[in-house]
């Protein structure tokens, strides 16, 4: 397997361009990033898209259905959505979508705040082949079904670490 050589800035530019051209998009669009990687991606996208409103941030750890088995990270922080979600079109952003469970948890949490008109899903990396729920990104910058793990580190500098999954070595 060839390790992909990904340029983070180009991927973010591509993702921002695709969202900008979508019919639903305006500078008043509302964006939510999922801690931690998704928050960094959402901040980078919001800057490129020159959004009028600050991004919301969710930490869906409490909502994950594997919370009991995986435990809770010591770094869980409160969620913060600085605007009313009711009837909004929300762009939900994460760095990686793999099983889909994090996105499922995030959507549950969003509905606790109100009933959005629509949720659009954008991610940097669509890790395909391991989906456990019928959740697909509307926008992604890079997709792969290879046995790779992606870890976004940031916020500044923002970098993407790519590792081969151990059980395939
Ligand atoms: O589709 P899933 O199988 O749920 O996986 C995707 C999630 O996994 C990673 O988060 P992680 O728990 O590693 O936290 P991080 O954002 O702090 O890296 C990634 O950032 C996504 O949020």
TrEMBL record:
Database matches in CDD domains: PRTases_typeI (cd06223)
Alphabetical list of NCBIfam families matching this protein: PRK05205.1-1
Keywords: Glycosyltransferase, Transferase
Originating organism: Thiomicrospira aerophila AL3
Classification via InterPro entries: PRTase-like, PRTase_dom, PyrR_bifunctional
Pfam name, any one: Pribosyltran
Record domain Phosphoribosyltransferase: where: 28-136
GO MF annotations, alphabetized: glycosyltransferase activity
Protein name: Uracil phosphoribosyltransferase
Residues spanning the membrane: none
Keyword Metal-binding assigned: no
Top-rank taxon: Bacteria
